[in-house]
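Review form for a predicted model. The reviewer records the input and the model, then writes brief findings.
Reviewer: anonymous (R2)
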Amino acid sequence: MFASPGPIAFSIGSLQLRWYGLLLGGAALLGLGLAKRDALRRGEPLDPFVTACSFTLAGAIVGARLYHVAFNLDYFLRFPWKVFALWEGGAGIFGGILGGAALAAGYTWWHGLSLGRYLDIMAPSLALGQAIGRWGNFFNEEAFGPPTSLPWGLYISPHRRPAGYSGFEYFHPTFLYESLWDLTVFVITVGVLRRRLQPAPGALFLAYLALYAVGRLPIEALRLDSERLWGFRSAQLVAAACLLIASVGLLWLSRGKRRPPPAEA
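Model under review:
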């Protein structure tokens, strides 16, 4: 059994630094460093790649926040200034993936660069960043599942417990399950798939997306705070769509790789 020490890492006068923001910032810096290293290994020019990463990160932050805002619109219409309070938690990874990929696509298209190669370089960093960033949910006491008596149960403060669960103290730490899965995806993409899929630009990113979606589907089913869409868990709907898109994309790339070259005239 374990418990969060609280969302505030430390204070400097009236300024409070939150674990959520520190973890997101640290994950972004670490991810950028790993991506730059892989870009060098692949022989990619660093200047355009770093610029593309900057656009991707900005798109990911905006997309992740807008995803959360869209599914909690009633709250943010009452407190519109809270839209910018990202440090308090509330970001949807699927919105981040979509927003980041959209800006990366725009930048690479405008400059005539390979979107597939750039996304492949960023994919492992995304998985590792998610593994680290999920711990922000721990400090904020969010992203947890039903009550449990297992040794790794997470203590949830009374004011954070959902309606109907006030009599329970310990809950499944679904943030931890997802963090461990994200770490597994990182190991698979770097240690198993990266070199094998390098001849097919875009395949590694699609593999990352499929692997993440496979893990997110059952983990999301445990969460008590899932956002809903048409009565379904929105993250599961998006995960299923991402899994389908990634699977079709990988199939298309594999067929293109097997297609024999045209015969010479």
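Findings: The radius of gyration is 20 Å.
Further findings: The mean pLDDT is 88.
Recommendation: see findings above.
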